[in-house]
Amino acid sequence: MAPDETASLVVRAQRGDADAFTALARRFLRAAYAVALAVVGRPADAEDVAQDAFVVAIERMETCREPARFGGWLLQIVRNRALNFLDARRLRDVPSNEAREDRAAPATEEVGLRERLIAALTALSPIRREVVLLHDLEGWTHQEIGLALGISELMSRQHLFNARGVLRGRLAEENPAEVNHG
Amino acid sequence: MDDSRIDFSPLDPSRDPERWRRMIDSITARALAARGPGSIPQQLLAWSRPALAMAAALTLVIWGAAWASGPEPAPQARTEPAVTLAAWAADDELPPATEILQILGGQNGSR
Q1: Which residue range is the domain that position B82 belongs to?
Q2: CB under 8 A, 24+ apart: contacts of A170-178
Q3: 20 to 30 Å CA-CA from B14: which of A29, A33, B3, B43?
Q4: Does B14 lie at the interface with A, CB-CB under 8 angstroms?
């Protein structure tokens, strides 16, 4: 989506247009989930954080001063809420098994692959997790990632290159067939 | 670089389209509920733009009507004897006595 289209949706959302909320959610919820997953590391928790952050963002929509840069503004809210969530989870001392990860009821082998992907992601720095998830899961361009994360396109490419290398190595250690090439 | 994309589809929540749609609908519903009807300043702000536009349109109509009716003579020149007297004082010639009486009489009559 072009920045102009995003800006138009944000302005409509600031006036309370419910259709604009939905359109923004369709466009940005998965990116919000990617960033939340990069921080909290568990898909179910990331879904909760992404949804909560999106609702907060819509509540505070009037404070988005640069509508064309809504993505970066939203992802900052997601990141902050994810970090708060992580602190709270550490305090609760929840066991690290993924008891809540069966919401979508994936097949058993998929659960295994999910677990391996999640484990491999922990080997990356937070910024590299965000870049690789926004690029390979959400499909954002380096320009979009750079704008949203406040880094250069070149830096985004470097993070992606390094992240993929680490992930591929980790996944290949367990099962070379699971390192997919798009 | 795109040919070495990592397949994150097992982590993609939108793989289940129906569940994904429900998530989006839930966000919209929660957001609408959270925003409510809006505060009084927000509602005033929302109404201020149409009110300003209406005021501007009315002003234009009034100005247009005034312009269409043509210019009127300056009221000061019509009614102020001091202006006439000053003009006479600046001239070398004396005005006719009838005009002097008219001006003075008008001034006396109006006050």
Answers
A1: 74-111
A2: A170/A116, A170/A119, A170/A120, A170/A123, A171/A116, A171/A117, A171/A120, A174/A116, A175/A116, A178/A113, A178/A116
A3: B3
A4: yes
Where are chain A's structural domains?
1-105, 106-182
Complex-level ipTM: 0.80
* pLDDT higher at B92 or A163: A163
Q: What is the pLDDT of residues A116-143, one digit of tens each?
A: 999 999 999 999 999 999 999 999 999 9
Give me A56's structure tokens: 């907060």
Helix/strand/coil (H/E/C) assignment for every residue in B38-90: CCHHHHHHHHHHHHHHHHHHHHHHHHHHHHHCCCCCCHHHHHCHHHHHHHHHH
Q: Is residue B23 part of a domain?
A: no
A182 with B5: Cβ contact below 8 A: yes
- Residue pair A51/A36 in contact by the 8 Å Cβ criterion: no
> pTM surpassing 0.90?
no
Task: Inspect the interface and report whether the beta carbons of A167 and B32 lie closer than 8 Å.
Answer: no
User: What CATH number does the domain located at A1-105 have?
Assistant: 1.10.1740.10
